[in-house]
Amino acid sequence: MLYAMCFFLFVIGLYCALVKKNMVKIVIGIMIMEYAVDLFLIMLGYRAGGVAPIVGKDEFDAVSGMVKSSFINASVDPLPQALVLTAIVISLGSLSLMISICIRTYEKYGTFDITEIRRLKG
Amino acid sequence: MIIPLPVFVAVPLVTAFFLPLLGDKRRFGATILANIATGVLLVAAIATIGQSGVYQVGKWPIPLGINLVMDGLSGLVILAVSVVGFAAMLFSAGYMERYTAKPKYLSLFLLMVAGMNGVVLSGDMFNLFVFLEVASIASYALVGFGCEHEELEASFKYMVLGSVASMFILFGIGLVYGNTGSLNMAYASRSIAETGLTRGLVFALGLFVAGFGLKAALIPFHAWLPDAHSSAPAPISAMLSGVLIKTLGVYAITRVVFNVFGISIQLGWVLLVLGVLSMVAGGFLAIGQADIKRLMAYSSISQLGYVVMGIGLGGLIIAQGGSTAWASLAILGGLFHLINHAVYKSLLFLTSGSVEISTGTRQMDRMGGLGKVLPITRATCTIASASIAGVPPFSGFWSKLILVIAAVGAGYIWLGAIIVFVAVLTLIMYLKVQRYVFLGELPENLSGVEERRGSMTCAMVVLAYLCVLMGLLLLVPDLKAAVLDPAVDVLVNGISYSSRIISMP
After folding, report:
1. How far apart are CA B214 and CA B224, in angstroms?
2. ipTM, 2 dp
């Protein structure tokens, strides 16, 4: 169910990016898609009632010296969180570039409406 | 000599960091430094031919850490990126003088090269996404580098569709991780081979085809390409059409489809149909163009169709259990066309840049008779046109010949007919370029035009020689065994990729 809502959010962002006429709204749509994917990645690692994946002294098995399997089964998967951090940094880069292009375009054309920004044809 | 794999990413990345520090006053030094960096990459790429191996970043063993993988296919694409990057950088030295902030341009250029090399070398899905974004963001900025009306519009269009594609790819990567528990391509592939294609993985595959298809500008996803490739500065058009759409699009989708998911009959048909659609529709759209760079951009779609069609046909034959000989011939044709197209299409865009900088226009109906005043441009453009149209003995002829033989040999005679038909279309569109640009009467307002000599003509001549000599890659058995055959083997062997990577030291 949560995954379906995540996908729904993704589709809202896609709709917004492809249908809206205002450049800033298109950028917002792309960011909604980005957040939907980030949310999806976070949910992949989520466990109901899970613990933070930080291994303390108590979590080692006394006999084998390995981390207890009960701890591994209860802890949250940390990898998607690392992925999301990276993805957020990348999206910050592309967002700032997109916004600066929007500003430059506004200076040239005096509008954000993409139906009026049409010099390229064919 | 064994070249450590991170060199391909580190050299352009570090140089890109230092270039903007030089500032616009020391642009000569920055140009020299950037050219040295691409030169080093070219030497490294030639030295690594035939090398294969896995590099574990930070000594973390796979699947825990990130790994860089060099195999036949990566080596081939790296070679194409380095050759085109070297020539385009040499051309930029002269062409970009009229722009301000040249060191920033050079820095973005090298970032794009670093991103492409990273995509090709990465053996890890998420790492592939990161490098793909590095290359994409640099290319969005480069398309809009001139900051004029058309450039900004094209850049925005390209950026919106490129970002949507990136999100598709990231979503797909998330689904692969959720279903296989690994981001490493080799381990994900092993897990997929055990469990089979679950519903989540099929959805991920659909997202990958759409995402990488957008990056490769295959025909239903092509809307951004003609604008972006015609508005960018000429050396950047050469990089975008020559290698960027191939590394981010075709290379990535072949790697994912063949080596991670494993080819199936449906996937083979999807690639084949996308390829044929791009070939035919791209060809027809190109013929009607009056803008020289737009014509070349549409013809890129058409030529990229050949590559995807060849690889898809090979995959289809493998999935149907047909003869491996025909399958590897089809894939050989596709991959050979990939590097051929990288060379001659970048040369064509460089000649268009030379024409544009001399005449100040891209509209073909305002030109004519330029063959007399731009002799080197005319000669190199004729070689590249002959090559792309498939006139023997230039390089394009050999790859198209192989594709026709493979299609007919495998029993797809209609496909052979389409290939020949599109080759004729290509010939017509480049005859149009020759006729309008170089032949006929010189208009009066262009009578004082002169050719810019120096680094620009030098880059064009280098690529023109390559166009003539590329046929040797196929005809000399030693060269073929060193460069093309390992790349074909990687795709023909399919998902045995995973066991090879896991067992590699």
Report:
1. 9
2. 0.93
